[in-house]
Amino acid sequence: MRTINHWIGGKPATGSSARTSPVWNPATGEQQAEVVLASTEDVDAAVRTAAAAFEQWSQSSLSTRAKVLFAFRELVNARTQDFAEIISDEHGKVVSDARGEVQRGLEVVEYACGIPTLLKGEYSDQVSGGVDLFSFRQPLGVCAGITPFNFPAMVPMWMYPVAIACGNTFVLKPSERDPSASLLAAELWSEAGLPDGVFNVVHGDKEAVDALLDHQDVAAVSFVGSTPIARYIHERGTAAGKRVQALGGAKNHAIVLPDAGIDYTSDHLVAAAFGSAGERCMAISAAVAVGGAGDELVAAVSEKARAVKVGSGRDADSEMGPVVTAAARDRIVGLIGTGSEQGGTLAVDGRGLRVPGYENGFFVGPTVIDNVTTEMDVYREEIFGPVLSVVRADSVDEAIALINANPYGNGTAIFTNSGEAARRFQRGVNVGMIGINVPIPVPMAYYSFGGWKDSLFGDKHIHGPEGVSFYTRAKVVTSRWPRVEAASGSSFHFPTSN
Ligand code: NAD
User: Fold this and answer.
1) 143 catalytic residue (yes or no)
2) What is the topology classification, in CATH, of domain 2-248+455-477?
3) For a tag on the chain, would you pick the N or C end, based on fewer CB atoms within 10 A?
4) What DSSP element (H or E) covers 189?
């Protein structure tokens, strides 16, 4: 069995722990590797390596950092297909989708290439007689990233390019379910000329995460994953005095008004609900059909859901792959069962789907459940699978109120031809990322990404300007250069300008 190791100090490291976790191929259902799980001592070794590397890297010039970032950008771009195949084999998503994920991660690397501009400070000349005032930002130290299975390349790239460009060093703890993309990134960093120890990868589970949260040399923690773990990370990390941004789970709604084009809307809803088998934090999992929109919408979405080509992520014809593990499949299948038991109408039932040649794969077909109400488990739970619930509402205000009553607030969308309704929605909905006739409104890298309510714990969104702010702290300098022979006398009142 192939073993997947850590990456510490610019080279692979086996670590001290005998614990491992299986890495599956979700399409075949077979175990393809085992990943080592770090002990507290292994994490300590990685953090100490990163802390030592910080001494040099934090002093590197902005142009040195930008050059390394540009070189890394070229290498990731050239190896996009390799990343995509690694992701597809461990996560299950189709290769074209995985290429898109790498592209969106690359955009953050490109943003970080502009670090000399992003770190420009402020300067005020002559704030008082002979006194100037200026501010600049400095790196924090060792930053840690703890990331989910569903975007094994992109989500870590939301973090480490910005952190490293700002002069920090980094320890990444990727998902143990699809750990290999992070190791390719580590190799490319070395090839790009990043000094050893600036970027490290430790694989692991709760033991490794807790060791990072408690380590006195970790200054900041970026987390992306499910809401219960995000809440825990934020509480434990901040209690240990660290800066923490913890992005959590989601239940993303799309409101569909009767004036929306039915073809356009159903095409986009199907792609947003079933793309990547629904395992996206920005997937649409609840459509809220307003007024008379419901019946026609359910008919169109159901027809398109039945036509989705489900197969191995490596098959170029596949539009949707398997879900990540057998446990995920069983959980999703169980939740679909509760949907019909609790009064929903199974318009399309994806349970029991068999893919020829992949009979042991972790497949669930696209599923549409109509007449869902807010008390049902399929509405309350984050299913994280290819299941679209359709809820009915009488008015756009009722639909907005329904979204605002939901504990999550990651993304949401409205499909309409009414600018007035869209504007009411964008101003009134308590959600961080909003789409107007755009179902998956993931902001570009030069904006920041983040939800509201139980979808984010902490004060800063990720990447973009808020990312630079998260990974640096400000210094403000008040400066006077008097003539050597000048004497001004002592003044004992609090300094004011003159
Ligand atoms: P997860 O919360 O199970 O795992 C995320 C990370 O936390 C992994 O590295 C995992 O090893 C670690 N972890 C798991 N259990 C832990 C524990 N008890 N203590 C400490 N660490 C633990 O999430 P997942 O299943 O890998 O990913 C799917 C979830 O991530 C979904 O809820 C999805 O909505 C969310 N997600 C959110 C965003 C966002 O931007 N808000 C983006 C992607 C995914």
Assistant:
1) no
2) Aldehyde Dehydrogenase; Chain A, domain 1 (3.40.605)
3) C
4) helix 180-191
Say if CB 393 and CB 399 are below 8 A apart: yes
Per-residue pLDDT for 47 more than 90?
A: yes
Closest ligand 1 atom to the C-alpha of 176?
11
Which tokens sit at 83? 């990343």
List where CATH 3.40.309.10 sits in the chain: 252-436
Answer yes or no: are the C-beta atoms of 372 and 286 closer than 8 Å.
yes
Residue of minimum CA distance from atom 18 in ligand 1:
206
Strand, coil or helix: 399: helix
pLDDT at 497 over 90: no
Element (H, E) at 138: strand 131-139
Instruction: State the Cα–Cα distance between residues 287 and 269, nearest whole angstrom.
Output: 8
DSSP string, 268-311: HHHHHHHGGGG--TT-EEEEEEETTHHHHHHHHHHHHHHT--B-
- CA angle 139-458-158, nearest 5°? 60
Mutate to test the pocket of ligand 1, among 21, 40, 172, 209 (most ligand atoms within 8 A of CB): 209
234 near 458, Cβ under 8 Å? yes
In 3D space, the residue among 160, 60, 52, 169 whose CA is nearest the CA of residue 116 turns out to be 60
Mean pLDDT of 232-237: 98
Looking at domain 252-436, its CATH superfamily turns out to be Aldehyde Dehydrogenase; Chain A, domain 2 (3.40.309.10)
227 C-alpha to ligand 1 centroid (Å)? 8
Q: Which of 387, 371, 372, 382 is nearest to 410 (CA)?
A: 382
Count of CB atoms within 10 A of residue 490's CB?
Answer: 4
Give residue-wise pLDDT tens across range 157-174: 999 999 999 999 999 999
CA-to-CA distance for 430 and 413, rounded, in angstroms? 12
Give the end-to-end CA distance of the chain in Å, rounded to a whole number: 74
Of the chain, the percentage scoring pLDDT greater than 90 comes to 97
Tokens of 462: 């990720």
CB 414 within 8 A of CB 421: yes
456, β-bridge pairs: 247
Which of 40, 150, 383 for a ligand 1 pocket mutation test, highest count of atoms within 8 Å of Cβ? 150
pTM of the model: 0.97
DSSP string for residues in 311-341: --TTSTT-SB---S-HHHHHHHHHHHHHHHH
Q: Where in the chain is the domain with CATH 3.40.605.10?
A: 2-248+455-477
Q: What is the DSSP letter of 355?
A: -
